[in-house]
Write a structure and sequence with these properties.
Blueprint lengths: L12 H19 L6 H13 L9 H11 L2 H25 L5 H24 L7 H14 L1 H20 L7 H18 L19
Helix pairs in contact: 1-2, 1-8, 2-3, 2-5, 2-8, 4-5, 5-6, 5-8, 7-8
């Protein structure tokens, strides 16, 4: 990626990238409104952002083009599993709040399982193979989560930061998905560079996204 500033250029390339990330974030937020499309949208955003290293532009048009070509039964299944997991978590938390015996301990266990599942799911979205093989991406993400504990902590921090931004100013909810995707991509690239993520094809762009 270019890091210098052209003569007469007001905004440097990093600020331009930041603006592109925000535009992708809005696109992800809109596409994810049905909820079932959330995993595919976030995965595509990560793939688009990963292309910066190869000089490919980060644009909403490239994101939408890549998403249009990759939506398939596997992506819908990933969305349904995500919704089912979220629903199960909410039911468990509701039962805990109803005053069941051992509720506090059960609440802690449910919260811990929820956090672990969220970390694995988000890291799976950031892996390149999620574009073609969700089960493989989930297996690789689980491996990453165990071997790269620091990266998993960064994922939790990124989610908390995104949630706080959206909570403080509701309109930011349409911008934070792009920033979250950027954080997830950076964490995945960091893990691959350190040799902690060794499962699955690393650093490979999906051919169908080239030239978007």
């Amino acid at each position: 990626m270019r890091t210098d500033r052209e003569p007469g250029e007001i905004l440097g390339p990093r600020m331009s990238l930041f603006a592109d990330v925000l535009s992708v974030g809005v696109a992800v937020a809109v596409v994810s409104l049905p909820l079932v499309t959330l995993p595919a949208a976030l995965s595509t955003a990560c793939e688009v952002l990963r292309g910066v290293r190869d000089g490919r532009p980060v644009t909403a048009r490239r994101f939408l083009g890549g998403l249009r070509r990759r939506l398939r039964s596997g992506d819908v299944a990933a969305g349904l599993v995500t919704l089912a997991g979220l629903g199960l978590l909410l039911v468990d938390l509701a039962l805990v709040s109803a005053g069941l015996p051992g509720g506090p301990a059960l609440g802690v266990a449910v919260a811990a399982v929820g956090v672990c599942a969220a970390v694995v799911g988000l890291r799976a979205c950031a892996r390149p193979e999620s574009a073609v093989d969700w089960p493989g991406a989930v297996r690789g993400a689980a491996h990453d989560a165990v071997r790269d504990v620091g990266g998993s902590a960064l994922v939790v921090l990124a989610v908390v930061t995104a949630a706080l931004c959206a909570w403080m100013l509701l309109p930011l909810a349409f911008l934070v998905p792009g920033l979250l995707a950027l954080a997830l991509t950076a964490i995945d690239v960091r893990g691959a560079a350190r040799g902690t993520a060794v499962t699955g094809p690393r650093g490979k762009e999906v051919a169908s996204q080239e030239g978007v």
